[in-house]
């Protein structure tokens, strides 16, 4: 096995990917990389600068002026756009409503994928997103595909936004989730699909600890098998 272990977690919006990835990264002492936050940061840049996404030249020009970074802050990961901490604002609905459209742009996806692959070459990581196990790291050591029923995902997102003081209805969130699902699964560039070798986890009726237990067991199985194979080869 390579020195750096890569865990790719893909799945639908608000199914618990980031929560699980953060907790697992803490337990395994891996770096957690929130790919979705990087797409949101780019989306925020496009919104604030009123950029026309149909103009390929302007999209590439905009990307050339974007600098992204993520820093660990305990169990949280802070996302920076051109040295500005945008961790909170990128979770607001005006960004959520545009992120699927912006992230579907070929130029944007290539820009982010290159950034993510660069991070993955440096250390063991857990990365969550929509195409981590299929495009970014197709040879990841462990691939997880997470899902949950739409009503469960909407309620989780609603609770998260209400805790942050946002005034939005559950029906608005459900509409946004379903629209994002459609965009994510039907876009031409890197659509959301389950990798053929990914471990499927439905989190609808599972606690965080139960999900962590399932994935941790899968991780230990892979590590143990690798050690066994290495010992037989000696």
Can you describe this structure in just a few lines?
Helix content is 53%, strand content 17%.
**Tally of DSSP helical segments:** 9
Describe the main β-sheet briefly: 5 strands, parallel
What proportion of the residues is helical, as a percent range?
A: 40-55%
What is the terminal-to-terminal distance? Answer: 14 Å
Under CATH at level 1, the class stands as Alpha Beta
Family: Belongs to the cytidylate kinase family. Type 1 subfamily.
Subcellular location: Cytoplasm
Main location: cytoplasm
Enzyme class: transferase
Give structural notes.
This protein is an alpha/beta fold. The protein has one domain: 3-Layer(aba) Sandwich (Rossmann fold). The chain has nine helices and eight strands. The strands form two sheets. It has a five-stranded parallel beta sheet, with helices on both faces. The chain has a three-stranded antiparallel beta sheet with strand order 3-4-5, covered by helices on one side. A hairpin with a 2-residue loop joins strand 3 and strand 4 (76-81). The model has no long low-confidence stretch (mean pLDDT 91).
What descriptive keywords fit this protein?
Rossmann fold; 3-stranded antiparallel β-sheet; 234 residues; 5-stranded parallel β-sheet; globular; alpha/beta
